[in-house]
Design brief:
The complex is a heterotrimer. By secondary structure, chain A is an alpha/beta fold. In chain A, helix 6 links the parallel strand 7 and strand 8. Chain B is an all-alpha fold. Chain B has 14 helices and two strands. In chain B, helix 3 runs parallel beside helix 5, helix 11 packs parallel to helix 13 and helix 11 runs parallel beside helix 14. The C terminus of chain B is likely disordered. By secondary structure, chain C is mainly α. Chain C starts with a helix and ends in a 10-residue tail after the last helix. The chains are: A alpha/beta, B mainly alpha, C mainly alpha.
């Protein structure tokens, strides 16, 4: 099944063409890595897929359903989640509270107003499981802003996972991480449920090639190359952009 | 309900103090003062739900308070002395008004939202002020007696009313406690902390804000009704911008988004007001300076700054 | 027909006054991202200072100047010592400036008392202007003239000079702006001072037909806010269109629906909010 399909997607902002006629599709369980120089339109693409901004032209399909006009919170319920390039957590809330909000988002108890949080046993159990799985229990009660940047980036991914999403959009997950932290996070991503579809924006070429089943190269809003990593590595146009950038 | 033991003890001590207060301090003046504090705390607790927990500061809540107050007064004067009717109507009117306010103002956020609440609040004030034939305009509506509770039993003033206000306060406190420790309440806090992220987590943010606004309006209106029956007199001042500003200041001063913040803030402000009144007429000046100092130096309010210390001693509040 | 023209004239002149106030507020917000709700207080103090100056010198234009400058000084002090601390935090700014409004109002009460004061029209504008056989109050024309002139100057300032761009740059990143050789503190003083100056000046200008009394600060602030909501925050064009609209509606409202006079100005506000929440010429910030 094609979990994500983009058809002729274009977006312009007051005269600035951010994306032009982008099309691709992703299979269930596939890992698609999007690379490209800064300003290529990668994050705009994510914003269009999650529904944060409407496209100027084109259509977005999630799980083969046309979601082009669906608001973001409803797309989340279909099973899509994203992380942010700049860490976008709830800084003053504890790790536990952060994950709680992520898990609650797709849970039917989110309008429960008359009973305390402690009655949401299923959610609390799930959080414990997640914390144990990622070895973060000791930070449970710490305000997230006090945690190290590396852990915060991990939490970004966990938040996206918590909603049980089947499509994950990771926006530069390893940005700002040390080599060791990058290795940890990359292994974490490789170890995810193989049924989860991943679309990843990356700047780190090693990580990109390691993670990708397929790749797309965006340059100034246009797809200039697409295919498996070997093909991309050998593509002269791609080399030109990256060598030219230096 | 699972409060920790230590929290329970603290709460019971305060509650006990409030209960025996009129007998420990047999002064009509001080009982009246505390009655006022309890009634205004209901107002500020309602506002705190929207401004403190959800992060939507409003300067139009005076109009909601006033709508509850005037509805109760009008009912008493023209329809019936029945207390239950007055309460239902007053709370309902305030809630409906809050809903309308929400529909208009929630199309914007932050500062624009604040501007619009100011304007909407003034709109209501203008109606109350201008409709002399109904509301008496600037002269207000004097001579509102005490309502009847059952057949011919009326709610009397003094100590009886103090306990009535106390019970109402405790009920509202309980309601706020339940709401803010519930999943729904946590989402409100999430909206305040990072609206952008919470939208991506699958929440219909507008709906949450709307509900918070309406509930806050219902509670504020309730405060207004209780005030009318207590004071026996309603005037446009009870729906004024100045009143809204006082309320917001109390919420910030006491500690936004804390359970006891509104009560503490109200106590401080009412105390200062009464002390100042003994010396000078310059309440406006003091209010202004209080605002300035609070914004500059005490943004998390009394409970906010103390809260960190209390938290460690008492254990977790749940927020 | 004569009455219609006179009412329109009154509406436009009132609108011009509102424009002068709204433009100061919107300029400060658009360029410096500062929300200053003590604008009404500036008006009030400017008006009362004007009363005193006229009492002692009888000179209307001098009063306008003195008020403008005094308020400019107060404004600059406020910005320098209080608002700068709250850089780019709109909500605290709002609350702080409301606090100042209360302080100003009480100071005015202390110094000038609680009774309404009166500012008379300047003697050279006492006589009506005749167009054909109809006499129009010349003072209203004067207000419109002053308003239009300042509108033109402001437009020039914002659009044609580099100053507007410089201020915006300085607000967004002070370090870089300084690095570019822009004297940031001076710039802020100039812009903020200009806004405050206009507000103080309006206190005198509006005196003859609005009056000077406790509470006028808040009424003026409210009208200014409505103008900005309708016209769009940060937009000079919006301020002009919005204020003329509100000025006319307010005037005609008072004439045709005296009981509902207070509500007529809210009608365009609610309509705009329903259709385009960011205002006629505003942009989502």
């Amino acid at each position: 099944m094609k979990t994500v399909t983009i058809e002729g997607l274009s977006k312009s902002f007051e005269g600035l063409q951010a994306l032009l006629d982008v099309s691709f599709s992703v299979e269930r369980g596939e890992r698609l890595v999007i690379i490209g120089p800064n300003g290529a339109g990668k994050t705009t693409l994510f914003n269009l897929i999650t529904g944060e901004i409407p496209p100027t032209q084109g259509r977005v399909f999630l799980f083969e359903e046309d979601v082009t006009h669906m608001p973001p919170h409803r797309r989340t319920h279909l099973g899509i989640a994203r992380t942010f390039q700049i860490t976008n957590l709830f800084p003053n809330l504890t790790l536990h509270e952060n994950i709680f909000l992520a898990v609650l988002g797709v849970n039917s108890q989110k309008f429960k107003i008359h009973q305390p949080v402690s009655t949401c046993r299923d959610i609390l159990t799930k959080i414990e499981r997640l914390l144990i799985e990622w070895d973060l229990q000791e930070y449970k009660r710490a305000p997230v802003k006090n945690l190290s940047y590396g852990i915060q980036r991990q939490v970004e991914v966990i938040m996206a996972l918590s909603s049980g999403a089947r499509i994950l959009l990771l926006d530069e997950p390893t940005s700002g991480l040390s080599p060791a932290e990058t290795g940890t996070l990359t292994s974490m991503i490789l170890g995810l449920d193989p049924n989860v579809t991943l679309i990843i924006i990356e700047h780190d070429m090693d990580v990109a090639f390691r993670l990708a089943h397929n790749m797309i190269v965006l340059h100034q809003g246009v797809v200039i190359a697409a295919g498996p990593p070997e093909k991309i590595k050998a593509d002269p146009k791609v080399k030109e952009i990256y060598l030219g950038e230096e | 309900m699972c409060l920790r033991l230590k929290q329970w003890i603290l709460f019971l001590i305060i509650a006990a103090a409030l209960i025996i207060y009129p007998y420990a301090v047999p002064s009509y003046y001080f009982t009246a003062l505390l009655t006022q504090v309890l009634i205004f705390s209901i107002f500020t607790m309602g506002l705190n739900l929207l401004a403190g927990y959800t992060g939507l500061s409003s300067l139009g809540h005076g109009a909601l308070f006033g709508s509850g107050a005037y509805t109760a007064a009008l009912l008493m004067k023209y329809v019936s002395k029945n207390m239950w009717l007055g309460f239902s109507a007053g709370v309902l009117v305030a809630g409906v008004l809050a809903g309308l306010f929400a529909l208009i103002s929630l199309r914007t956020t932050r500062v624009y939202f604040l501007f619009i609440t100011i304007a909407l609040g003034q709109l209501i004030w203008a109606i109350v002020f201008g409709w002399r034939s109904l509301t008496g305009g600037d002269d207000g509506m004097p001579g509102i007696g005490k309502p009847t509770v059952w057949s011919s039993i009326t709610l009397s003033g003094g100590t009886t009313y103090y306990y009535f206000a106390l019970i109402s306060f405790l009920i509202v406190l309980f309601i706020i406690y339940r709401i803010t420790t519930s999943p729904f309440g946590h989402v409100l806090i999430g909206i305040r902390e990072n609206e952008n992220r919470i939208r991506h987590l699958g929440y219909n943010v507008w709906l949450y804000k709307f509900i918070a606004f309406v509930v806050s309006g219902l509670l504020t209106g309730l405060g207004g009704v209780i005030w009318t029956y207590y004071n026996g007199f309603v005037s446009p001042r009870d729906a004024s911008f100045e009143f809204s500003a006082e309320a917001l200041l109390i919420v910030i001063l006491g500690g936004r988004g804390t359970l006891f913040g509104p009560l503490v803030g109200t106590v401080v402000v009412v105390l200062i007001k009464n002390i100042i009144a003994a010396f000078t007429q310059r309440w406006l000046f003091v209010l202004g300076v209080a605002y300035i100092l609070t914004i500059l130096y005490a943004r998390s309010g009394v409970v906010g700054t103390l809260g960190i210390r209390i938290k460690r001693w008492v254990g977790e509040w749940g927020e | 027909m004569n009455m219609l023209i006179i009412h329109t004239l009154n509406g436009i002149s009132f609108g011009m006054l509102l424009f002068l106030l709204a433009s100061g507020l919107t300029l400060i917000f658009g360029l410096m991202s500062i929300i200053n709700l003590s604008h009404g207080g500036y008006y009030l103090l400017g008006a009362y200072i004007g009363v005193t100056v006229i009492m002692h010198t009888g000179n209307f234009l001098l009063a306008m100047l003195v008020s403008g400058i005094s308020i400019a000084i107060i404004g600059v002090l406020m910005e320098r010592f209080f608002l700068r601390e709250l850089h780019l935090q709109p909500l605290p700014q709002v609350l702080l400036t409301i606090g100042f409004t209360f302080v100003f109002a009480d100071i005015a009460l202390m110094i000038w008392g609680g009774e309404a004061r009166f500012i008379e029209k300047p003697s050279f504008l006492m006589n009506p202007v005749f167009i054909g056989k109809i006499g129009f109050p010349s003072y209203r024309f004067f207000v419109i003239l002053v308003g239009a002139t300042i509108a033109g100057l402001l437009w020039l300032f914002q659009e044609r000079t580099r100053v507007g761009g410089m201020v915006r740059a300085a607000v967004n990143d002070e370090e870089i702006a300084r690095g570019l050789g822009i004297n940031v503190p001076l710039l802020f003083i100039l812009v903020f001072g200009l806004g405050a100056f206009l507000a103080g000046l309006c206190g005198v200008l509006g005196g003859p037909f609005i009056g000077v009394y406790p509470g006028v600060d808040f009424e003026i602030l409210l009208l200014t806010l409505i103008v900005i909501i309708v016209g769009g925050v940060g937009s000079l064009k919006g301020a002009l269109v919005g204020s003329l609209l509100i000025g006319l509606i307010d005037n005609f409202g008072k004439v045709f629906f005296p009981e509902l006079a207070r509500f007529t100005i809210y009608a365009p506000m609610v309509i705009i909010l329903a259709l385009k929440p960011s205002g006629l010429f505003g942009s989502r910030s």
